[in-house]
Design goal:
Chains A, B, C, D: Its EC number is 1.1.1.31. The structure is a homotetramer of 323-residue chains. Chain A is an alpha/beta fold. Chain A contains 16 helices and nine strands. The N and C termini of chain A lie far apart (56 Å). At the A-B interface, strand 9, helix 10, helix 11, helix 12 and helix 13 of A face strand 9, helix 10, helix 11, helix 12 and helix 13 of B.
Chain lengths: 323, 323, 323, 323
């Protein structure tokens, strides 16, 4: 049974909506995010997932003490009718459109002033469009895509890049987002969170491939990879892809490359983000020479089933061993 | 008058050889490096430059107190005959070959055990070849290319990437290099300094263009460039090209982009280094997809006289304003 | 006054719909195509353009003898209600969707068995979707995008690449298309015309840039461009971009490059087609390394107002003169 | 025993020099070329190969009637001392330099007025340099690289691209080259043959990859490859790589792709030529965006032992099956 609770900025009623799309998001990303929210909340908490099993699993995973408060919604509309704050994490633009504006979607049940936080990474134009429909329904919307991956979700150290109409909506959203992450940054107006996220990931993809090319070249020239990385990391070539997630195995013990390219940011998810970049570049007529090659390298890599599911640093292996 | 001085690892007799190639190196890079060496040395000090004016200018710039010790050599061979430590900084592989192995070159005058430190950035294969000829003449050689630019040369904060046959040669070279720079790192065997330098600069070029693409896209999507840079700089896209030398004017006050793309690393020098990268990639059969596009973008940019002499961050302008 | 005429596969009643989008299509492409259709037809002929002036201009341009037969429709729906064959040429996916499925669109007035021929170059997925809606309305649809440009339209020498459900629809469409073009080819099922068109234009863009790179390199190596082109044109490098539309001025007298890059295929239209290619590549997960660079080169070029409206062979100038 | 023969432009004394480098050249390319020369010549004929077995094999293969005339030289210098026309085909710049200017090289034995025809594909700058040394020795030199592959060599249908100081040298060379090939074209001054050859092969590599990308995209969009190719081949995308050597198996029966990518132009030889292109582009500051990606795609492909030895159309497989 779902219990509605009193409104107000102090209330921490949060509802989680997801739709099954890929295991790591359904079972891990959303799961961990919802747990962090739940653990730090005393108010009623409703979840929705198109897969009932995912919901029961979440319910089961919560402690005895809080479990009684968790409600399982029957649809996005149902959940919206019971919530004053809603967090969504969905795989693609089409899912966000559907969950918000489709049949039995959030807009059918939404209450006045409800704050909708969409943490999906989707097309900026779709994000802005959906947010405007939420606002037209007298509710509030922010886009808050995530950086930090599953490990960040588990540890509660995610970064949220937020686009909002005003500071007040941002501050409201921050109250909740800060339970799941360490950094919550306002990037600008509606859609600015999406824009910042894809710009970062564009540079990330380029840096990673660049690091892979530089490390591969250095190794073939006879350099010790650990020595080379340490030089780059104190020089003008330094970047996150080199000093934190170096794609050459055993250069950085905690990097996915040192764990068989597992536990990181999957190549096919990077490909997805680079697709969003390509759409934004086309809309804004922005030339992307390195960015477009990066997208197509990951398209090539994702054509291989094994590499598609490995950390995107696997581009080093792709380069190093030849086709 | 040239005075020869006693040998030994403690002696700090240093001779500077350059050949005129480009003003910033002859007048600035080499000039500042030699000044730092001179200021911290009590022993005899000889310089050589194919342009006599450059030598007199250096002599004039040194303090009255030390001036009397500065000798002007008549050729590389002449200088070599008077030195136990030699530092060379030259523009291209061909110059290094000529200064060492050509007529009246260093090898014609070199003394047993003299330590040759070549700080030019040249082809790894040429560097190794020349070093081996020096060693065959019973002297010693290290390659020690520089990172840090003219500002680093002036401030004495350069980084030297050193390749040497053994730790002893490296330690010897470090005594002198540490007067001109802050970091002196051994990268490996002969040629390893060159290899590390070009690998770093390959990644640097890619990161810079990547930063330019990401910033340009973000700005066209409506983001404030300073906000976008601050987000990237605390996320996985962070890199030196974004947090220290951001190519968008007025994002980072000290970056060349905020000073009309002046005072940095010239686009045509980056192009030169990417040419060395291309040679090394061909020799080692290393694929460079982003790296080869980067080289050709700088070739396109360097076709424009004005941009050729601007900081390599000018790639942002090239992207942003259309062709 | 619009007169309806008897149905039947032999009747050659043709209606032309366009919407104003760009002068060269409204005034030239569509205009010439419609004239060829009109001149070889005795039956009633209706036209529609959202710009009434464009319709009067067409009416005025037709001969006294046939003018009386030309009807001006008041909307796509109106035109559809009077036609058994409809030809559309529109600029973008959104226009085709709107003209067929929007308010007062063709589907609101369409008659049973009417043959809809869409000669727009648009997204394959949108084309297939609209065709299926036409078929669901018990009419018939083929996609028949055009190759050959304005000069081909004027001369009646266009190539039509046709996608159709069956051979019968194709043969019907061919009766009409062969009045406007020389080659009418069935490429496969619905959407196959679009697919073939963009694959051809992908290769065309790559060949043109490749020709520009090869000619520019040869000229800088001291070759006479006419001699180089003649060698390439009898060797394995030969292609349409080299032997027919060589981008170096005065190599081929009839090429747009020899007429100030005028009268050809505009750079920004090539950019538009490469955008369709990018969408199709994303949908089908097809890597496009050269294709993606080609798209972004044209995006860079189209950022320059002058070059955007020049023949796409202007990429030679972009390469040759530096940025 | 070697017999010297009378000089004169009418004499057809020809000597073949090769050095062992790769089977297909030593055993096939040079072998077939020499056979064509030999068969149409009555005069004395000397061959040299660093591998004596290769020379005996050639001698054995010649008919009883002519065999007695074939002389086996003991060195390039020896051969030069007995010849008035010399044809060389060698793998790399370094070999040409060595065979002409090295110890026991041609220049040590060369006679006044001897015509040296170098059919190797090497760096333009090296080719010009060696030719000038030949001319300084009062002999004559032309560069005449080959297009057409082993099948062309066997059939005697090669194309020769010739650079010469004057028309007379070209006409002289043509007398001999036309026995081995169908087209003999003067491209310009010394080095122009090399320049034309690499410009053609640059465009060839780009066209082939472009064809592979377009065919792969079309196939994934549901098109029949034979239909797609036939459309492209009558449209603006047509090129040799599409209409003669289509990289999709079974589209063109005689193409290497239809024979397991055998019998064509090996991927690693294309990579070699693209390396020459890269050198020339660097020397002349010519930007090559597609060309540089093409080079690196073939570097990636050549990293795979099997594909390295297949026809360069194998890039289609590389794209189609994912990494």
């Amino acid at each position: 049974m779902y219990r509605d609770i009193p409104q107000g900025p102090e209330s921490e009623e949060i509802r989680r909506i997801t739709r099954e799309f890929e295991k790591e998001f359904q079972l891990k990303m959303g799961f961990h995010m919802a747990k962090h929210l739940r653990c730090q909340s005393d108010v009623a908490f409703h979840v929705y997932d198109m897969n009932p099993e995912a919901m029961s699993r979440f319910q089961a995973a919560c402690s005895t003490k809080t479990k009684s408060n968790i409600g399982l919604a029957s649809s996005p509309a149902d959940l919206a009718s019971k919530s004053s704050v809603i967090v969504t994490v969905l795989p693609e633009s089409a899912h966000v459109k559907d969950v918000y504006t489709g049949s039995n979607g959030i807009l059918e049940g939404i209450r006045k002033n409800t704050l909708c936080i969409d943490s999906s990474t989707i097309d900026t134009s779709v994000s802005v469009d959906v947010s405007k429909q939420v606002i037209a329904a007298e509710a509030r919307a922010v886009d808050a895509p995530i950086s930090g991956g599953i490990m960040g979700a588990q540890a509660g150290t995610l970064t949220f890049m937020v686009g909002s109409q005003n500071d007040n909506d941002f501050e409201q959203a921050k109250l909740h987002l800060s339970k799941m992450g360490k950094n919550v940054v306002r990037c600008g107006d509606l859609g600015a969170g999406q824009a910042a996220k894809i710009c970062n990931n564009l540079l990330l993809a380029i840096s990673m491939i660049g690091t892979a090319e530089a490390m591969n070249l250095g190794i073939r020239l006879g350099l010790d990879p650990t020595v080379l990385a340490s030089i780059i990391n104190t020089s003008s070539g330094r970047c996150w892809s080199s000093d934190t997630a170096n794609p050459v195995p055993d250069v950085i013990a905690t990097a996915p490359s040192s764990k068989g390219y597992s536990g990181g940011f999957k190549a096919r998810l990077m490909l997805k983000d680079l697709g969003l970049v390509a759409n934004a570049a086309k809309d804004t007529k922005s030339p992307l020479l390195l960015g477009s090659i990066a997208e197509n390298i990951y398209r090539h890599i994702a054509g291989n089933q094994t590499m598609a599911d490995q950390d995107f640093g696997v581009v080093y292996q792709w380069l190093a061993r030849g086709s």
